[in-house]
TrEMBL record:
Species lineage: Eukaryota, Fungi, Dikarya, Ascomycota, Pezizomycotina
Protein name, as recorded: FMN hydroxy acid dehydrogenase domain-containing protein
Every FMN hydroxy acid dehydrogenase domain range: 44-424
Biased composition regions of type Polar residues, renumbered to the chain: 1-11
Annotated PROSITE patterns: FMN_HYDROXY_ACID_DH_2
GO molecular function, one term: FMN binding
Annotated spans, Disordered: 1-51
Family of this protein: Belongs to the FMN-dependent alpha-hydroxy acid dehydrogenase family.
Catalytic residues (UniProt): 319 (proton acceptor)
Source species: Trichoderma harzianum
Keyword set includes Transit peptide: no
Cofactor: FMN
Highest taxon, organism lineage: Eukaryota
Compositionally biased region (Low complexity): 13-28, 37-48
Binding-site residues for glyoxylate, renumbered to this chain: 70, 176, 211, 319, 322
Length: 435
């Protein structure tokens, strides 16, 4: 497959239209013009709320108990999750007035791809627990909106099918390190052959964090026939492993899926820097030197080590507070890491983002790109492809309007001068927040 730089799709991203009209992109205005025009039409898009708290509430009503628990559970008593949300309240945007924002631009570049905004789809596994179309709908919408999409190796559709759904869209592959080296190489090869041209190795999850509701209810979604093994079932090396174990996936799909998850995703074997170097070398060999990134970095020393070893990028992330309870917020970690290595490595961010203002603050602190997760999961849960499209178009429109009324013409203007920050010790919001 040919890997080339992708450019803007030149499509108008109005947040209320169910389809994307063709035509040239009016600079700056298109994704936010007339956001009130079709709110009373009663179609799927306009009947889905735009407020993230309401989106979350509706998703809870739509999902089964197991689906809701898996999407919403945090580690322990949710202190890290709360910390993620509180951190955004510590930073306040300082608008600029009398600035000509009529010709503004939200576009940016990530790993050679020109995308509509510095906002992308974080990798989340087993999407079919939320909607039967799962990753296929998410990848399709990402391509339509010209946003970066990252596929989880715990996904519920094959690499090949997701690539087809994503078309010419910019896409990356998130890897949970399998202890099976032959299988790991096979996965990386399949990903690159299907147009996933950056690899993101997750460093914080080889076992799942202690999540009370999941544990109390025995809610291990990967054992309940939601396509848990489908991404792996298409792999020739894993097919060989199934044959060696005497498992026929056609007759025993749950057993095959459990083998995929238990031995290659949540296998309980901690990874080391030495193994990371091996994985990076394999990806570089397979891809001809395309970017290799580490996801889950929260410690300054780990960020420095990544720079020392030649890693291309890091995602500052605490897995949305789902792994370590009582941990540092992702945004606070971002601030420390940017101060230490911000000029030496490409820094991305996720965990706790609920709005355009949240994304803006992460960019102002020093992230070059922001990934979102739960927002699009809720949209998928509510209305499948239409729900994902609605949530992302609303977020893009909100981001565009924020730049317009805040006095920012381009992404390059967003830096720490754009925010005013309270001391780290400030008590900012109540213990239990709606979002």
């Amino acid at each position: 497959m040919t890997h080339s730089i992708k450019t803007s799709s030149e499509k108008c991203l109005t947040p209320t239209t169910p389809t994307l009209p063709s035509g040239p992109l009016p600079s700056g205005r298109c994704i936010s013009e007339n956001p009130f025009g079709t709110q009373t039409t009663g179609n799927t898009q306009s009947s889905t709320p735009a407020n993230p708290a309401e989106i979350e509430k509706l998703a809870k009503e739509k999902l089964s108990q197991g689906g809701w628990y898996y999407s919403s559970c945090n580690a322990g008593i949710s202190w890290t999750h709360l910390s993620n949300r509180q951190a955004f309240y510590r930073h306040r945007i300082v608008p600029r007035m009398l600035v000509d924002t009529n010709q503004r631009d939200t576009a940016t570049e990530i790993f050679g791809h020109r995308v509509s905004a510095p906002i992308g789809f974080a990798p989340i596994g087993i999407n079919r627990i939320y909607h039967p179309t799962g990753e296929l709908s998410v990848a399709k919408v990402a391509q339509e909106l010209n946003l970066a999409y990252c596929l989880s190796s715990a996904g519920s559709y094959s690499i090949e099918d997701v690539a087809k759904a994503n078309g010419s869209g910019p896409r990356f592959f998130q890897l949970y390190q399998s202890p099976d080296d032959e299988l790991c190489i096979s996965m990386l090869q399949r990903a690159f052959d299907n147009g996933f041209d950056a690899c993101m190795l997750t460093t914080d999850t080889w076992s799942l964090g202690w999540r009370h509701n999941d544990i109390f209810t025995g809610n291990y979604a990967f054992y309940h026939d939601h396509g848990a093994g489908d991404l792996g079932l298409q792999d020739p090396v894993f097919q060989k492993r199934l044959k060696e174990a005497g498992i026929d996936p056609a007759k025993n799909p749950k057993e095959a899926g459990a083998k995929w998850i238990d031995e290659n995703i949540w296998h309980g074997r901690a990874m080391t820097w030495e193994k990371m170097k091996w994985t990076m070398a394999q990806w570089k060999r397979i891809s001809g030197g395309r970017p290799f990134c580490l996801k889950g970095i929260q410690n300054v020393e780990d960020a420095k080590k990544a720079v020392e070893l030649g890693v291309d990028g890091i995602v500052v992330s605490n897995h949305a507070g789902r792994q370590v309870d009582g941990g540092i917020s992702s945004l606070d970690a971002l601030e420390k890491i940017v101060d230490a290595v911000g000029d030496k490595i490409y820094i991305m961010f996720d965990s706790g983002v609920r709005s355009a203002a949240d994304a803006f603050k992460a960019l102002a602190i020093g992230a070059k790109f922001v990934f979102i997760g739960r927002l699009w999961v809720w949209g998928l849960s509510i209305a499948g492809e239409h729900g994902v499209r609605h949530v992302l178009k609303s977020l893009l429109a909100e981001f565009d309007i924020l730049m317009e009324v805040g006095g920012f013409v381009s992404i390059d203007e967003i830096d720490r001068s754009c925010i005013d920050s309270l001391p780290n010790s400030s008590n900012l919001i109540a213990e239990h927040s709606a979002i």
